[in-house]
Specification:
heterodimer, A: 366 residues, mainly alpha, ABC transporter involved in vitamin B12 uptake, BtuC, two-stranded antiparallel ribbon, 4 strands, globular, B: 259 residues, alpha/beta, 10 helices, 10 strands
């Protein structure tokens, strides 16, 4: 669409009434459109993939990927876009799972309704946690959210009359639609990936909206965003609640899929795992979330052949990845593709243009 | 017509009185400079006016409306925008996106409507983009709209934050040391932009140490010292005020400074 090197001349011309789409600035709409192309490709790929899968085990792994992807998509909005770190999302994941399990089993509520009620409950809980903790920054926010996860973990174990204690809660009914029950690995595959793909769309819409831009502004400079009219405190709580609801929905799917929930699945190490998925995949990129969820779910399974050494090798792989792809897999792949296509296709920020403008007096002055 | 009125503003941080019953007014459509030696309380005053610090006593009125202690994010919508001494550029975003964020106080979109991508969101987005391009044009940066703001040279970043403050069509912009760290040529250019703001009918409250710039562009000068106003008037008068000379130089010499 854009010719390389077209500078001020083309962009500057106001052209108020001339034909709409052709005068659009190159920066906007394309990312959203590009996303939809990628989304469609992914949807087709996931629809065709079952033809190539042999064992139920392969379906199981992919189902876990889908559930993780839902959590990571929400967490990415919070961490990658708004820049707020949470090490408590396993707690919301767990609250969704236990909420669904307890409501549908103990109280006989329809699983879908249980899922919705749990998500609403988690939203309220997240708001209650978010309002005080999101005033904190960096390490303090990490500690506060970790603490919250520990508390939830303790409750799940100790309140055994309701939760089943450390041995877990069994007999959770599967989800079903119009008589079709998603109670096998194969059938649940369609539900899990359907929901995961569907939830990517509102996430993408948010990212490519004024609100999404405001969230990134909060990430870069909170006072700056506030001065621009962004209600930073309210937005941080809202995106925290939103990401918690994503985690809750994933937790409910998890519970109805496995039929059993156990507190160990929702401890702080699970939270760390979710954060690592965001980091490894690439923060601030929805595709990064997919890459992270896929890698960190599938890789440990593949490393099973190394038996007792698998943790060691897994750790080494993560270390190497963080050293060579510090921004994550997704940005690394994007750069690689750009380089492979000859680079410099877009007139964006190339190193040459930056050097020529740098007057050698440093980038930031006091 | 008085646009901004600060009355008896006092703020203490622990035992330190940063502001001691400071009062001044700024007229609509005019450039009012706020000067004073380091530690005079200029930054605290700015922070009080822009909702970053809540004053212990006193009031701030903007356009006839009491804005004392009002949350910072509500001010752009009322027509009061600001820039920061430490720029606060959104480094990971493009110039255009930076300026579009400057319009956030004026758009009505929520998280839910954005997620559903209601038609209004798309329309808003287009209008924001057009307004942002015009503001970038004013700052002489429209040719670089899609470059990353964080990689921009310092002088250009200074003009970028000006565009970001201007884009919402404010009645007044508060400029916190807009030429600090700029070379003489860039300083001159920034002075031209400040005058161009006034020509557009935008009032400017200028906090600045560069006296030659203050003398060149200001319609009125307010001098702050030890948290209180010690002089107010036209640049020429203030320059000859003995109290001001005393505050700056410790007495005796002519108030020439580094002009």
């Amino acid at each position: 669409m854009t010719v390389p090197g077209t500078g001020p001349g083309t962009v500057k011309t106001p052209a108020p009434a001339s034909s709409g789409s052709s005068t659009r600035h190159p920066l906007f709409t394309p990312p959203a459109r590009r996303f939809m192309r990628g989304w469609l490709a992914l949807a087709v790929a996931m629809a065709l993939l079952p033809l190539a899968l042999r064992s139920g085990y392969q379906f199981t792994v992919l189902n876990v990927v889908a559930v993780n992807l839902i959590v990571v998509t929400g967490l990415n909005l919070l961490m990658g876009y708004a820049g707020q770190i949470s090490y408590g999302h396993a707690a919301f994941f767990g609250m969704g799972a236990y909420g669904s399990a307890i409501l549908s089993t103990t109280h006989g509520v329809d699983p879908w309704l249980a899922m919705g009620v749990s998500a609403c409950g988690v939203a309220v809980a997240a708001a209650a946690v978010g309002v005080p903790t999101l005033r904190l920054k960096g390490n303090y926010l990490v500690m506060a959210t970790l603490g919250f996860n520990l508390i939830v973990d303790v409750i799940l174990v100790q309140w055994s009359d309701v939760t089943g204690g450390s041995s877990g809660f069994v007999g959770v009914p599967p989800l079903s639609v119009a008589g079709i029950s998603f109670d096998t690995d194969r059938s649940f595959y369609w539900l899990a990936w359907g929901v995961a793909l569907l939830l990517l769309i509102p996430a993408r819409n948010l990212v490519h909206s004024p609100v999404g831009r405001a969230l990134r502004a909060i990430h870069d400079s909170e006072p700056g965003a506030e001065a621009c009219g962004v209600p930073t405190a309210s937005y941080k709580v809202q995106v925290f609640v939103l990401s918690a609801v994503f985690a809750s929905l994933a937790g409910s799917l998890h519970a109805h899929y496995l039929g059993i929930v156990a507190p160990k699945t929702f401890d702080i190490f699970k939270s760390v795992e979710f954060v690592t998925m965001c980091l490894i995949g690439g923060m601030g990129s929805l595709w990064g979330g997919l890459a992270g969820a896929l890698l960190l779910t599938v890789l440990p399974q593949m490393l099973g052949v190394f038996e007792e050494h698998h943790d060691l090798i897994f750790g080494a792989i993560l270390l190497v990845m963080l050293i060579f792809m510090p921004r994550g897999v997704s940005p690394w792949l994007r750069d690689l593709l750009k380089k492979g296509l000859g680079g410099g296709k877009r007139p964006g920020v190339s190193r040459d243009s930056r050097d020529s403008r740098d007057r050698g007096d440093g980038e930031v002055r006091p | 017509m008085t646009l901004l009125a600060v009355r008896d503003l006092s703020v203490a941080f622990g035992g330190i009185r940063a502001l001691d019953a400071a009062s001044f007014t700024a007229r609509a459509g005019a450039i009012t400079a706020l000067i004073g030696p380091n530690g005079a309380g200029k930054t605290t005053l700015v922070n009080c006016v822009t909702g970053m610090v809540r004053p212990d006593s006193g009031s701030v009125t903007f356009d006839g409306r009491d804005i004392t202690g009002m949350a910072a994010h509500r001010l752009p919508r009322l027509g009061l925008a600001r820039t920061f001494q430490h720029l606060r550029v959104f480094g990971s975003m493009s110039l255009l996106e930076n300026v579009m964020v400057g319009l956030h106080g004026h758009v009505r979109t929520g998280m839910l409507s954005s997620m559903l991508r209601l038609p209004g969101v798309r329309r808003t987005e287009r209008a924001m983009r057009d307004a942002a391009m015009q503001a970038l044009d004013f700052a002489g940066l429209s040719g670089r709209a899609d470059e990353a703001a964080g990689l921009l040279p310092y002088g250009d970043q200074k003009r970028l934050v000006l565009a970001r403050a201007l884009v919402g069509d404010p009645r007044m912009i508060l400029l916190d040391e807009p030429v600090a760290g700029l070379n003489p040529a860039e300083t001159h250019e920034m002075g031209g932009l400040i005058l161009a703001l006034r020509a557009r009918g935008v009032a400017v409250l200028l906090i600045e140490h560069d006296m030659s710039l203050v003398m060149r562009v200001s319609d009125a000068v307010v001098v702050l010292c030890s948290g209180a106003k010690i002089a107010e008037g036209a640049p020429g008068e203030v320059k000859r005020n003995p109290e001001v000379v005393n505050a700056y130089l410790g007495g005796g010499e002519e108030f020439g400074l580094h002009a």
